Amino acid sequence: MAPVPQHRSTSGNDADTTRRPRAIALVGIDGSGKTTQAHQLADLLTAGGMPATYWQNAGGRRWLGRLARRLGRRDPQHLLGRTGLLFVESVLRWLAIARALLRSTLRRRVAVMDRYAACQYASIRAHGGHRWEVVARAFYRIFPAPDVTFLLDVAPAEAYRRIEERGTDHESMEFLAASVAAYRSLPEHPRFVVVDANGTPAEVTAAILDHLAERFPVRPSTGPVAGPVDGLPPPAGPAVPGPGVARIATRSA
Ligand SMILES: Nc1ncnc2c1ncn2[C@@H]1O[C@H](COP(=O)(O)OP(=O)(O)OP(=O)(O)O)[C@@H](O)[C@H]1O
Ligand SMILES: [Mg+2]
């Protein structure tokens, strides 16, 4: 059983139990654990009384990679060219984010975003298409900044290892290192909540929950808890304000 974020505000603002984020974004290089953490976070928030939905804001690179290979090309860039690929990726991600924001707003659910606009700017920088960033920003600027953007900070070698183990795609060490540099160079970077993502999935989840529990009270859950977080010990007590988050808070990365 995974711990659920219970209502416990360590900021002293216990009265404001209605405050909730509209969107939480997870950004970071390939293999940093965004998808793993975003799924987990949506499940835990929902179980804790804050209905949340996971959204994959993909730019289509994996799908385009399969298409490219089917058409006898090495990779999507070989198929579309660098500028063409950045254009298609930017359009697909823009549509995905727009859909996620719209549907989450209509359903009054927290949107847990697996990638957001910053990922597109970082992708453009990492692929050396800098002059197109201004165009992308012009289109993406209509999207509100998420309430919190978690940057999952992982060493390129660890990301490389995970991607190889996952076995669905491949990224070079050079590209992963360039991606790390691209995220760090973004003007948004000072506003990111940087999480050390080199640890176990449970440790990364704990660090994310620790930060959220400071800012957004979640009603106590009386229902079943979402799926397990590997490596986390079982919850210490009943589903009442206190032990869950207090224990997690000590495990901040
Ligand atoms: N903290 C972790 N420690 C070890 N392995 C992890 C961790 N988090 C995720 N993984 C594993 O590493 C792989 C990459 O994780 P995940 O797919 O969540 O990353 P991602 O950031 O979404 O990558 P991409 O940008 O390529 O979609 C997966 O196989 C996942 O199970
Ligand atoms: Mg992913």
TrEMBL record:
Q: Does the keyword rRNA-binding apply?
A: no
Membrane-spanning parts: none
For the ligand (ATP), the binding residues are G28, I29, D30, G31, S32, G33, K34, T35
A GO cellular component annotation here is: cytoplasm
Class of enzymatic activity (EC top level): transferase
Iron-sulfur in keyword set? no
The reactions it catalyses are: dTMP + ATP = dTDP + ADP
Q: Which domain of life is it from?
A: Bacteria
**Could you give a single Gene Ontology term from the biological process aspect?**
dTTP biosynthetic process
Signal peptide as annotated in the record: none
What is the protein name given in its UniProt record?
Thymidylate kinase
Question: What organism is the protein native to?
Answer: Polymorphospora rubra
